[in-house]
Design goal:
The complex is a heterodimer of chains A (357) and B (385).
Chain A lengths: L29 H11 L10 E2 L8 E5 L2 E10 L5 E2 L2 E2 H15 L5 E11 L4 H18 L3 E9 L7 E11 L13 E4 L5 H10 L16 H10 L4 E5 L5 H13 L2 E5 L7 H10 L13 E4 L3 H12 L8 E7 L6 E4 L4 E3 L13
Parallel strand pairs in A: 6-7, 11-14
Antiparallel strand pairs in A: 1-2, 2-3, 3-8, 4-5, 6-8, 9-12, 9-13, 10-12, 11-13, 14-15
Helix pairs in contact in A: 2-3, 5-8
Chain B lengths: L3 H4 L10 H6 L2 H18 L4 E5 L2 H9 L10 E5 L4 H4 L2 H12 L3 E5 L12 H6 L4 E4 L2 H9 L5 E7 L1 H11 L7 E7 L2 H10 L7 E5 H7 L5 H7 L3 E4 L3 H16 L5 E3 L11 H10 E8 L3 E10 L8 H4 L5 H4 L5 H4 L3 H5 L31 H7 L7
The chains are: A alpha+beta (357), B alpha/beta (385).
Chain lengths: 357, 385
């Protein structure tokens, strides 16, 4: 049984479907998935792809080349403001694409493309800062930008700067987001909600003593170690960006046709993020991350331990934790055990905060 | 799930506040849920139906997944506990007409999107009307002090919130400040619901914060008249479970009584000063609660001494011009009324989560953060797993 809630099916009161694109279509939830399925991928899915194609709606594509896989992914970055606590649009543009490759199991990116669209009036020092961040993030990820494109648009035709990056990598084996089976353990690699809440606090000028910083970072080195810790044990991966942990879990549960049971007390959350979220009436599990991954791990306690230990050797994985498991009941649903009772975990509907990545 | 997680030294530290330890202790919650199940079994017939009348109770029940721990034979339903939801169409229309006539209307955020006959205040706002959201009655007065133009405070809420409105009216507000009261008084509607043949309510869980003002003694007459027990409860998960355990015990023992399980805040007498202020400014009158019924003494209206601040007496509000406009077709399929009366639930509504979502609410219960539909939607859609 699936949830009775279907935000994407919202119509106006005369019974019409949304006649134009609205912000929720870019929010990472059901409305966006439906837009992609019903409009953007139409036709393309008819051409057979040996591997993972657009119809799979995974983090990227995997095309067979001999006995290996060519993994490709692309991502456009529109974050506002371009410079935020803990990072900027340059670091985001590299990390986002490197992480999408890593979520497919491709942790050694061959190179990235970079298409830059800049608004007239954007300053050189700012552009140099963005470039430096991209350079630094590439070094962290062990990759580089191999080709690019630059366009300038008139004042007001664009807000600041937009960056698209595409990444390519070869992989011997790929990891999908639909690989969960009953009994698998769910790991999240660290505190959830940091990126979205840092942006929200910054934009709403929340007066919080401790500064909230984004977690934006390339994760490929950490993921590589986790995959190597017990080959074959990591059976599904997804990065919980827009829509947060909740959307990632929903997508994995739906595609894998299993139930996911999460124990709320095990989900790591920075206490400051928790307090800020409570103030704004938000659930940290709905808030975006840019330096976290959700892993499905199959195996005994020792196997789960080994994967956790590998994650925790990296600073981004210091708070990695098992947060739940896959169950046979309620396939496609995510159930939250609050410690006091259980309920369905909802997906955030609409746009929590636009232009977050 | 392997136990290695909680035992691990590198597990994330999650400092919890002392209040959480006291009122959110899972072990005690399990004990209470067990006790409730045991007593429902002793009653020996199902369902045992109890009602709470407070959005904050429903919020806590839904957020912490408590309904899933209730025994099969216990129905805990939310009654008319959302003041925004029970605000009647003509009351919204009054505010809409005032705003359309160019009067500045200020109100609580939840009221903005409540559908009126033809439109909501939010729609008037988008058409250029001066409608502002305030977070408190005091803020509404501040807005009036900054201008000479008339400012109408469209005031909603139960007796708890009405006290705040009363407090500013006795504190010499400026002459350009007016109140359009949609305040409601909870005790009379409990009588109405208790007498509804469809509901068969066997006990009420009363809202702790309202009782802080009114005192728990106010329910004694209700219990005498209807022989239905009332338990006053707080809002932490353990408060609610303890309140329910007490209520089920009273039902099992056939003992209609008022019991206060929220003594850290509620006394028998309540807040005397607040009560004096409330009744100095307001009187009760009968009126319709949306979807429920005509509730004798259910509405709070300004007394004659405060007539000069009463928007209903100081402005000519002509609602007739809205009456030619029929409510939208979807609105006519909304079952908010049955939900608030405890006869139905959101999952039985064909619109819930489909045509009716927080982004595009059809009924008031999906608008307010205290509405049953909004709360259920926020926490996953259907509470029984």
């Amino acid at each position: 049984m699936s949830s009775v809630i279907d935000p994407a099916a919202a119509r106006d009161h005369s019974g019409r479907r949304d006649p134009t694109i609205v912000m929720k279509h870019g929010a990472g939830g059901r409305a966006m998935r439906r837009l992609i399925q019903e409009t953007l991928t139409r036709g393309f899915v008819d051409v057979a792809v040996d591997g993972v194609g657009i119809a799979d709606m995974d983090d990227g594509a995997a095309l067979r080349v001999g006995d290996r896989w060519l993994v490709v992914t692309t991502d456009s970055h529109v974050v506002q403001p371009a410079f935020f606590p803990g990072g900027d649009i340059g670091r985001l543009a590299i990390s986002g694409t490197v992480n999408d490759l890593a979520m497919m199991g491709a942790t050694e990116p061959l190179g990235l493309t970079c298409a830059l669209i800049v608004e007239e009036g954007f300053t050189f020092p700012d552009l140099e800062r963005v470039q430096q961040s991209m350079f630094d993030a590439c070094r962290e990820a062990g990759t580089t930008v191999v080709t690019g494109d630059t366009k300038v648009m008139g004042r007001g035709e664009l807000d600041g700067v937009v960056i698209n990056t595409t990444g390519v990598a070869m992989a011997d084996a790929i990891v999908r987001d639909n690989g969960l089976r009953v009994g698998d353990h769910i790991i999240v690699t660290g505190n959830v909600g940091d990126h979205g809440m840092a942006l929200m606090a910054h934009r709403h000028r929340l007066h919080i003593d401790a500064e909230l910083t984004s977690d934006v970072a390339p994760l490929n080195a950490m993921i590589r170690d986790a995959l190597r810790a017990r080959p074959g044990a990591v059976v599904a991966m997804k990065d919980p960006t827009r829509g947060g942990l909740s959307s990632a879990l929903h997508e994995m549960a739906e595609k894998s046709r299993v139930g996911v049971l999460i124990r709320e007390e095990l989900v790591p959350v920075n206490p400051v993020v928790r307090a800020a979220a409570e103030m704004l009436g938000l659930d940290p599990m709905h808030v975006a991350n840019e330096g976290k991954a959700v892993l499905g791990v199959r195996g005994d306690d020792a196997t789960v331990h080994a994967v956790l230990a590998a994650l925790r050797t990296h600073p981004q994985g210091a708070n990695a934790a098992v947060i739940g498991e896959c169950v046979a009941t309620r396939p496609g649903d995510v159930v939250l055990d609050t410690g006091l009772g259980k309920r369905l975990l909802s997906e955030y509907e609409g746009e929590l905060l636009p232009r977050i990545c | 799930m392997p136990d290695l997680v909680s035992g691990s030294s590198a597990a994330p530290a999650r400092p919890r506040g002392a209040d959480e330890l006291k009122f959110r202790d899972p072990a005690r919650a399990r004990e209470l849920a067990g006790a409730i199940g045991h007593m429902v079994a002793q009653i020996g017939r199902t369902p045992v139906t109890v009602m709470h009348v407070c959005g904050s109770h429903e919020q806590a029940i839904a957020k912490f997944g408590l309904r899933q721990t209730f025994p099969e034979g216990l129905d805990v339903i939310m009654g008319p506990g959302c003041p925004v939801c029970v605000t009647d169409l003509p009351e919204v229309d009054e505010a809409v007409v005032l705003a359309e006539d160019g009067v500045r209307v200020v109100t609580y955020g939840d009221m903005l999107r409540v559908p009126g006959t033809a439109r909501s205040l939010a729609e008037v706002q988008s058409m250029g009307g001066q409608v502002d959201v305030v977070y408190s009655a005091a803020q509404a007065v501040e807005i009036a002090r900054d201008t000479t133009a008339p400012v109408v405070f469209f005031a909603s809420g139960f007796e708890t919130t009405a006290v705040a409105t009363a407090a500013i009216l006795v504190d010499d507000p400026p002459p350009n400040f007016f109140v359009l009261s949609a305040h409601k008084y909870i005790p009379p509607v409990m009588e109405i619901v208790a007498e509804m043949p469809e509901t068969r309510i066997e006990g009420f869980l009363a809202a702790g914060h309202a009782a802080t003002i009114t005192g728990w003694g106010i329910f004694e007459r209700f219990v005498d008249r209807h022989h239905i027990p009332v338990v006053v409860a707080g809002f932490e998960p353990l408060d609610i479970l303890a309140g329910l355990a007490q209520l089920v015990e009273l039902i099992r023992d056939g003992r209609p009584a008022v019991v206060n399980t929220f003594p850290r805040c509620v006394t028998r007498e309540g807040n005397r000063i607040a009560q004096q202020q409330l009744w100095r400014v307001f009187r009760t009158t009968g009126g319709n609660w949306r979807g429920i019924a005509h509730v004798p003494n259910g509405n709070l209206r300004l007394r004659d001494e405060f007539a000069r601040f009463d928007a209903r007496r100081q402005f000519r509000v002509d609602l007739k011009r809205l009456w030619s406009q029929a409510p939208a077709a979807l609105t006519q399929r909304c079952i908010c009324g049955d939900i608030m009366a405890g006869i139905s639930s959101p999952e039985k509504c064909a619109l819930f989560g489909k045509e009716c979502v927080p982004d595009a609410p059809v009924g008031a219960c999906m608008v307010s953060s205290e509405g049953t539909c909004r709360i259920w939607h926020q926490y996953g859609g259907h509470p029984k797993l």
